[in-house]
Amino acid sequence: MSASPRAAFRPDGAVGAVRRAVLWVPDWPVVAAAAEAGIGADAPAAVLHGRGLVAVSASARAMGVRRGMRRRAAQRVCPDLAILGYDEGRDSREFEAVAAAAERVVSGVEISRPGLLIVPAGGAARYHGSEEALAEALVGAVAEDAGCECQFGAADGLLGAVMAARASVLVPAGASADFLAPLPVGSLAHAAMDRFQRVAVEELAGVLDRLGLHSLGQFAALPAGDVLARFGPTGAWARRMALGEDVAPPVLRRAEQDIAVVHAFEEPAERTEQLVWLAREAAQRLDAALLDAGMRCGKVRIGARTAKGDALERVWRTDVATRAGAFAGHMADRVRWQLEGWLSGTAGGPEPAPLVELSLVAEDVVPLGAEQSYLWGGSSGADARARRTFERLQGLLGGEGVLSVAEQGGRSPRDRVHALAWGQEGEAPRRIAHPWPGRIPDPAPATVLAVPLEIQVLDAGGSPVIVDRRLALSAPPTWARLQADPSDRRARAAHRHPSSGHVGGAEGPVWELPRPVEAWAGPWPVVERWWASDSDRRAYLQLALRTDDGEPGLAVLVAFADGKWRLEALYD
After folding, report:
1. Residue 468: pLDDT above 60?
2. Span 259-387: which CATH code?
3. Alpha-carbon 111 to chain mean position
4. From residue 474, how far is each of 542, 560, 561 by CA, in Å?
5. What is the dihedral of CA 26, 29, 35, 39, to 10 degrees?
6. What are the helix (H) ranges across 48-111?
7. How far apart are CA 432 and CA 490, in angstroms?
8. What is the pLDDT of residues 521-556, one digit of tens each?
9. CA 11, CA 299: separation in Å to the nearest integer?
10. Top mean-pLDDT range of 142-146, 407-411, 510-514, 525-529
């Protein structure tokens, strides 16, 4: 949905004053956790994450419990305090009831984070007669349908609307900067929409306090260029928030009824031969249901239930758009591959078990003919041909025959690669945002070898360089010898030459001539599963090698483990 007419887009990509209305449920993590645990809304409760409390109920605050307290300190203040576990997934699932209640009043909402909803202020307020009437309707619907209390506020800009909701006020248009000016700089954290952004903003607020800038008005009065130079992108974002501006227009969702097909097996399916007809029939039924509704979808969630009661799910993209007859065939293959993977135990689910139910749910549903096009208009014929080529290859080679890669968290370049079947979607097992101590610094290498190759790293005298238990190099790396193509005559001659140094036995690898090391960095130790007998201990080193034939130098990443160096990756 486009932004309201009050939005003013600036040349630097920021958005000026956007009228926003916010629905806020106070202490939502506590509300969701208490509802799941069956604890009354008036009982003192808090949510613990790590070592500190991340959310505290109103009754617990009245007894002196504060966010950030340790468990024992909070329980000394309030012995009856119920300590509840942190679960981000639970908070998101439970908040769907609040979003659904709000969508009964307005046609679209944006879930900024669990506990905070942004609703379209302009059109919804005109429909209900005023922002006051809209607030009354929304608060009543949430209390009736979701069973929780909420607060409503409206202002220009995200931070202004959030703070207005926390105070249950409606700020007149154009007055957000004055409304925000006396508030403390710590209020900026309320506009952060994820935990990691909140940490960065809280650190910025601490610096501003130490510099004597205690209010948002004092901070907003600083020149924009000086703020960017001193505090970087986080500071520039915070200054726009303090002025009642935005950096992006609201992204509102519309509730579309799920289109799904469900098939219950007469007898549990145990063999892959039973799935060919079933996959085709289920895909055709979903295709017919979408056409009857005049809809297309961008994703399909494939679900199954096993005889043991396990629920299995995978999401696949459907990039075939409206090509005649393409959707059913496209999805039939993917359903079959997924069911075969679950039956054989190769799809990452629990222990293989017979399947008793199959479900297909269409997601990202849009009206027929309204599929998303490219920013420059229309669709790219080259991209469409490439997708069809990948689909044909996948049809010939199977679901795992064509893979796409995405980045995930990890310490080594090899660990940071997450491979999925082409067209399949899913969260990476390891999150990039986690700290990953010992991670190889950027830039990432351009090529990661599928199988590491042995390499020799030598000192000035030609002896192997080793890394001891204290992570110290036995000597600075001076030479490096790479494996060469065995058919290369020059490499074979170097392999046999007496002055070439020790290169192993006659059946060992063929080595190139030694290359001088121009520069090196490291070592970086990586110790994983240190508590287990099969722990993985490695030390990484970056080497810049010089060539003797005028070609540009070669930069490589090597790893030392079990007394040997191995070539892991190449840099451009």
Report:
1. yes
2. 3.30.1490.100
3. 16
4. 16, 12, 14
5. -90
6. 58-62, 71-77, 88-103
7. 44
8. 877 777 666 666 656 677 888 888 876 665 657 788
9. 35
10. 142-146
Rounded distance, CA 63 to CA 56, Å? Answer: 11
* Per-residue tokens: 199: 């940490």
List 407's β-bridge partners, or say none: 417
pLDDT of residue 336 exceeding 60: yes
Report the alpha-carbon distance of residue 455 to residue 484 in Å, rounded. 10
Q: Yes or no: say if 280 and 274 are a contact pair by the CB < 8 Å rule.
A: no
Q: Is 44 helix (H, G, I), strand (E, B) or coil?
A: coil
Q: Which residues contact 39 (CB under 8 A, 6 or more apart)?
A: 45, 82, 84
Q: Which amino acid is at 22?
A: V
Long-range contacts of 257-260 (CB under 8 A, 24+ apart): 258/361, 258/362, 259/286, 259/289, 259/290, 259/293, 259/295, 259/297, 259/361, 259/362, 259/365, 260/286, 260/289, 260/359, 260/360, 260/361, 260/362
d(CA 71, CA 239): 35
Answer yes or no: are the C-beta atoms of 240 and 247 closer than 8 Å.
yes
CA distance 115 to 190: 12
Q: Nearest 5°: phi and psi at 532? A: -100, 160
In angstroms, the CA 327 to CA 371 distance is 14
Domain boundaries, the chain: 28-87, 259-387, 402-439, 447-571
Among 73, 72, 77, 48, which Cα is nearest to 60's? 77
Architecture of domain 28-87: 3-Layer(aba) Sandwich (3.40)
Total H helices, total E strands in the chain: 15, 20
Classify each residue of 69-101 as buried b or exposed e, where b means 16 or more C-beta atoms within 10 Å of its C-beta. Answer: beeeebeeebeebbebeebeebbeebbebbbeb
Q: Which two tokens stand for residue 294?
A: 């005049």
User: Token match 């504060």: residue?
Assistant: 66
